[in-house]
Design a protein that fits this description.
The complex is a heterodimer of chains A (325) and B (171). Chain A is an all-alpha fold. Chain A is built from 11 helices and no strands. Chain B folds into 2 domains: 89 residues, Four Helix Bundle (Hemerythrin (Met), subunit A) (Up-down Bundle); 51 residues.
Amino acid sequence: MSINGILWILIKTISVVAVFLIHVMFVQLFERKAIAHMQSRMGPMRVGWHGVLQPIADSIKLFFKEDIIPSSADKPIFFIAPIIGVIAAVSSLAVIPLWEGFSIANLNIGILYVLALSSVGAYAVILGGWASNSKYSFLGGLRSSAQVISYEISMGLSLVGVMMLAGSTNLSDIVSAQEGRWFVVPQILGFAIFFISALAETNRVPFDLPEAETELVSGFATEYSGMRWALFFMAEYAGMFVMSALAVICFFGGWSGPGFWIFASVPPVIWFLIKVYAFIFLYFWIRATLPRYRYDQLMRLGWKIFIPVALANIVLTGLVKILWK
Amino acid sequence: MTLPQLFFAYFATAMTTLSLLVVTRKNPVHSVMWMLVLFIHIAGLYLFLNAEFLAAIQIIVYAGAILVLFLFVIMMLNLRKEETVKKYQAQWPLGAGIGIILAVFLVSILGKITVLPALGKYSIEAIKSEGSMMTIGKVLYTEYLLPFEVASIVLLVAIIGAVVLAKKRIE
């Protein structure tokens, strides 16, 4: 590979990550505003017009906060846990195609790469919970490890239908295979399972048991403060973005938009972002609406309902694909 | 050394060092962490051999599922006492001796290895043209269907056995 090629990859990587981190920063304002208005409040109003500069104020505050480390914590693991989370979430971006022909790495195993990184990201929560050496953190970590193992299976299985229809695990190929018909129509079952499993995988309400604040103070993140806590926070939101992007790519046609009238002149990346933000809004909407699951209910849902239904979906997709041929 | 040789040298040294770290750590959670790094290196080696499907499966299955289960069990057992117990039994010099003999034997045959040209229809070009995932799928579900099914049944038996053992006796 030439020097120019390496330089081009570096530029692509840095710009995608920088833009992504700005999105992650401002999405929390979006969340606070969305939930506030659903609850007839105004949300942040003080910093800037209607609180638009709130994320910057928050970041400065977190950055300068004292970094408290519990005296009995396992220091190396305590330090490294939030970093694992952020790295796993941000590296998933490498295979996400933002528009036709643009992704940092066009891997043949795109879906598997994202799934692999999301399973590595689970270590952040588990290790953070263990290393803090506190009851609440530890319980949060244990819950998270069981939850992530269970829902990873159903998430992987729910995407098999998409891989079968597209005949590929390359994310760009999956988007081009959806020309004229989004996979959400034949794969409605797979999509439902994927979306709910993604909620569990990113520890969002109603599956945010690892940090259940009514029982576990703040779960795995109880002992974390300042910048380290902010890294956990970033990892969660980055994971949300990646899961939404995966849902858009696998089920909602990725960057494609309606190709008529003025819509045809809108750049594809705008369509992609609109769809991703629609999903993120859905995450917030669910958070404002639903109560938290109980732990045994969570396990029952994962193992006794989602996994069998996802398997049935694979068999059904295979049958239809053979009979239609 | 060429670039691929340098890569391989890095992976080989790193993996050996990491394996030693796994068995010598006092804290079992630290051992698991080094094992995670080791598994990621194994996946890197697979990538280096152009087996990207195996690399992804290595991370998903070993790092993402099996190691998380290890960690789960170790955390549940809360092995604080293990840290003070002596790690090695009295026979360790015998084990080390056998290990050294094996190492000498392996090094002595290194020079006698001859690399054969690729045999059969699954040459590197054939695999590259349709992707390693497609090739593995085709081979697994046609040529090796019976062993594949047998392996599935063995796993199913293990699952049922575990459920039977874990289930409470109903009088």
